[in-house]
Specification:
16 strands, alpha+beta, four-stranded mixed β-sheet, globular, 24% helix, six-stranded antiparallel beta barrel, Rossmann fold, SH3 type barrels
């Protein structure tokens, strides 16, 4: 129970379904104010109090589990390491993989519970090969992308009670149940970045570990257009905040095309030069049996478009990999992001993007 409306209603529905429910709030920082203040994330004292009040209304036991050390090592440090290496990670996927459906689920099973229920918007179905993870009925709130790291063993012990309900109806239900979080705003941004300034947070936390403390912003021919104070402040596809004093010859906006963390060079150019048609992925995770080839689709951002693709899985056992040929080009895709693979509405699995291939200009 994060302290938001979704997990509160999910807990209430689990009780109505006949389950013996215990509410758990995760303490992810020993000093919550150092990660997030206000109602924008899931790491605050206010959120813990909101979750406790919701549990009282529902009538279930409530506990706070301190997973701050594990969260720091598996999510926060990983986030810093990936940016320091010039990649763009998604900490929400890592949190689901390492915390909510690994550390929490493992502890729950050891304590005799059968499953972990959350307020994620996704649907579980029984399939011919086990439990299948599908997109939520409300496409605008679908969160199957951030659950694309779950394995079959984890899905067997998961419940997503909200997957068939549009978000406005969830809020109405919360109000009917007397839950004070009915109108609480949704959380946004990265929960452990206190003010939403990812670049500033990274520079402060990395300190001397930054790959560089400055460098050049250049065009594709290598002409310097400006300077910067650290590549951790950039990501592939970024348009705003480049602070380039020299306008493009055609007057069109420039986008970050490439980041070289060792030299500190950031290359910029027109949007069409961000177009990619192939992705190589590593560290695949499968929701069921791994396919050999699949004509399906991939989603490359939490709220991104779905791209038709042909997916080919390596048969190597030492370094399993995934090759994705896109039928619809994608823009601004960076190494470190996740490619979640779908067959219709069903999540097949996911892979971490290692490299991309630009469309020939």
């Amino acid at each position: 129970m994060s302290g938001g409306v979704d997990s509160a209603v999910a807990a209430a529905r689990a009780v109505e379904a006949g389950h013996d429910v215990t509410g758990i709030h995760l303490a992810l920082s020993r000093n919550p104010a150092s990660y997030r203040s206000g109602a924008r994330g899931c790491c605050t004292i206010e959120d813990s109090n909101d979750a406790r009040r919701a549990a009282d209304v529902i009538g279930i036991p409530f506990y706070v589990w301190d997973l701050s050390d594990r969260f720091h090592e598996d999510v926060v440090v990983d986030f810093m390491d990936e940016y320091a290496a010039g990649r763009t990670p998604n900490p929400c996927l890592r949190c689901n993989e390492k915390i909510k459906f690994a550390a929490v689920l493992d502890r729950a099973l050891n304590l005799g519970f059968d499953a972990v229920a959350t307020g994620h918007y996704a649907v579980l179905k029984d399939g011919p090969d086990g439990v299948e993870l599908h997109r939520a009925n409300d496409q605008a709130k679908d969160q199957s992308y951030v659950l694309g790291v779950l394995t079959q063993d984890q899905l067997k012990h998961s419940l997503f009670p909200l997957g068939d309900t549009p978000k406005p109806l969830v809020r109405e239900e919360a109000a009917r149940r007397g839950l004070l979080v009915a109108d609480k705003p949704d959380s946004h941004d990265i929960c452990f970045v206190a003010d939403g300034d990812n670049a500033g947070w990274l520079k402060e936390k990395l300190g001397e570990r930054q790959p560089n403390t400055g460098g050049s912003i250049v065009d594709e021919s290598g002409v310097e257009l400006g300077t910067h104070t650290g590549t951790v402040g950039f990501t592939i596809g970024q348009r705003k905040g480049l602070r380039i004093g020299v306008p493009a010859a055609d007057g069109r906006p420039r986008f970050v095309l490439d980041i070289e963390p060792v030299s500190g060079t950031v290359t910029v150019g027109p949007k069409e030069h961000l177009a990619i048609d192939h992705i190589s992925g590593i560290r695949p995770l499968w929701a069921g049996s791994a396919p050999t080839t699949l004509d399906g689709s991939v989603q490359l951002r939490a709220h991104g478009d779905e791209h038709r693709a042909r997916i080919t899985v390596s048969s190597s056992t030492n370094e399993p990999s995934v090759e994705i040929d896109l039928h619809d080009v994608a823009y601004g895709i960076a190494p470190g992001q996740a490619a979640v693979i779908y067959d219709g509405t069903r999540v097949v699995g996911s892979a971490t993007i290692a490299s991309t291939r630009r469309v020939s200009q």
